[in-house]
Amino acid sequence: MNTRMAKAQAIGCHAVAILAVLPGPGPAAAQSFTEFLIPTHKSGPSYITAGPDGALWFTEISGDKIGRITTAGTITEFPVPTPNSQPYSIDAGPDGNVWFVEYAGNKIGRITPSGIITEFEIPTADSQPVAINAGPDHAMWFAELRTGKIGRITFTGTITEFPATSPPSERGPRGITIGPDGNLWSTVEARLAPNAVNMIARITPTGSITEFPVPTLNCSLASGILAGPDGALWFAEEDGNKIGRITTSGAITEFPLPTPHSLPRAFTAGADGALWFTQRADRIGRITMSGAITEFAVPTAKASPYGIATAADGTIWFTEQASNKIGKLTPAPTARD
């Protein structure tokens, strides 16, 4: 375990653009975008979450930093103690701190609102943690891509690992979330090709696993999986170019995206009752619980939107991994779907 107070840099800069809606069903009003340049060059912003302090917190996988951006656009960066750790997924914990995984460092990190970072070593070497999510049991849960395990870490740093796939040598968990049924749900990527069958896994808190095959072969499930307000789980199919929906009993429905090769990645629940998601092909998508999809082009070309989160005021925030920016989308007023 390693604790240190990171030196902070602060900056506030932005450019504003108004976006026209691309063809497709959904709300017809334009959305307002603002973008903020990250101080560290080529930092590789990846995932983002709403913090307990009202700010947004994000990982910089290439910069080895944790970033914080206020809703006014001021950015502060905190170096991760372990060099070349590649911080990746991030989520706010109910303990008032923000937690993140270190993909190359093989650690789970915790950062306080004041910027103090503590790291906890994962027992299994080279586990490649890729996703983390707050659980219903006052702990954080994370996915280990390489080992095929799901990990649980208490707020004091005790880690327990459970097999998440069967067999783990052939598949690895990519994303993780808590379902409305109190179970863990994970996107599971097959390692064997061609004709790879990817899975959605349901894992009980005691470690019992049920896997549900996704109908589209070679769909390349992303880390994005999230419980929707309809009581189902929604997930992203990067190569399948679809958004998937699975009920807690395992029934899967798939919704094709209007733009070919859009590479959907991550989700957030909007204040409008819909889910918003990133598309690495420079779009932010919105899907209603009935499956109506609208896409919005990001102002910066070749931005590669990646992680996404909703702030307390209902604005949508996302990382632009290629353009080294944090984006803010202010949804146009619309009735709940």
Could you characterize the architecture of this molecule?
Strands 1-12-11-10-9 form a 5-stranded antiparallel β-sheet, with no helix packed on it. Strands 2-8-7-6-5 form a 5-stranded antiparallel β-sheet, with no helix packed on it. A 5-stranded antiparallel β-sheet has the order 3-4-31-30-29, with no helix packed on it. With 337 residues, it is mostly beta strands. It is built from no helices and 31 strands. 0% of the residues lie in helices and 51% in strands. The protein has one domain: Methylamine Dehydrogenase, Chain H (7 Propeller), CATH 2.130.10. β9 and β10 (98-102) form a beta hairpin.
Total tally of structural domains = 1
Biggest beta sheet summary:
5 strands, antiparallel
Shape descriptor reads globular
Proportion in β-strands: over 45%
Main β-sheet, spatial strand arrangement: 1-12-11-10-9
What's the layout of helices and strands?
Elements: E1 2-5, E2 9-12, E3 15-19, E4 31-37, E5 45-50, E6 56-60, E7 65-69, E8 74-79, E9 87-92, E10 98-102, E11 107-111, E12 116-121, E13 129-134, E14 139-144, E15 149-154, E16 159-163, E17 171-178, E18 184-190, E19 199-203, E20 209-213, E21 221-227, E22 233-237, E23 242-246, E24 252-256, E25 264-269, E26 275-279, E27 283-287, E28 293-297, E29 305-310, E30 316-320, E31 325-330
Antiparallel strand pairs: 1-12, 2-8, 3-4, 4-31, 5-6, 6-7, 7-8, 9-10, 10-11, 11-12, 13-14, 14-15, 15-16, 17-18, 18-19, 19-20, 21-22, 22-23, 23-24, 25-26, 26-27, 27-28, 29-30, 30-31
